């Protein structure tokens, strides 16, 4: 990104004019009621814990596999991500801000912990994917956005990302992740709120191939972050 006082994201993404895809993808946002139940029943942790999967046998014997991964660890990660902020004492994580760069690294680490192959695309979306037994099948895309409004709620966007990763991690420690019948891909979208550039759905619009090229010329007059 340019070090001038007006930052443009034109160089961050090369528009793809070939919008017709060979495969149809399904978008699903994992905000299920059972997950809210787990969240509400868990106390705020001091820090985010990580279960490597080595304890799988003991967890299954105790019947604690799902509560520990889908509740305790997930809640810890929500609190951890809620502290990745550009604001002091409140949550603010806008597109391409320093906090969003840190969030990318954190989310990518969680995806890899769940057994997913990860990458960051040219727009700044974070992807974590498992191919399953049939890599040529239509893929299921799951996720949400990692950017926030100013003074945001902790669950907004982050819940969809964390819950999706947690669900796949539970499959991993059960030995079922690689047995999925189709590819599954978790995406943490770089921008939905549109706070920084005053235009929404930049991340998902780029993936869907519907982002107008003119959008890439919009400048940001508020922030000055130097080079990315």
TrEMBL record:
Could you confirm whether the keyword Hydrolase appears in this record?
yes
| Superkingdom of origin organism | Eukaryota
Organism for this UniProt entry? Arachis hypogaea (Peanut)
Q: What is this protein called?
A: Peptidase M28 domain-containing protein
Q: List, in alphabetical order, the Gene Ontology terms for molecular function in this entry.
A: hydrolase activity, acting on carbon-nitrogen (but not peptide) bonds, in linear amidines; metal ion binding
Q: What are the UniProt keywords, alphabetically?
A: Hydrolase, Metal-binding, Signal
A Pfam family of the record is: Peptidase_M28
- InterPro entries, alphabetized: Amidase_Cbmase, ArgE/DapE_CS, Peptidase_M28
Cell wall biogenesis/degradation among the record's keywords? Answer: no
Q: Where is the Peptidase M28 domain?
A: 125-208
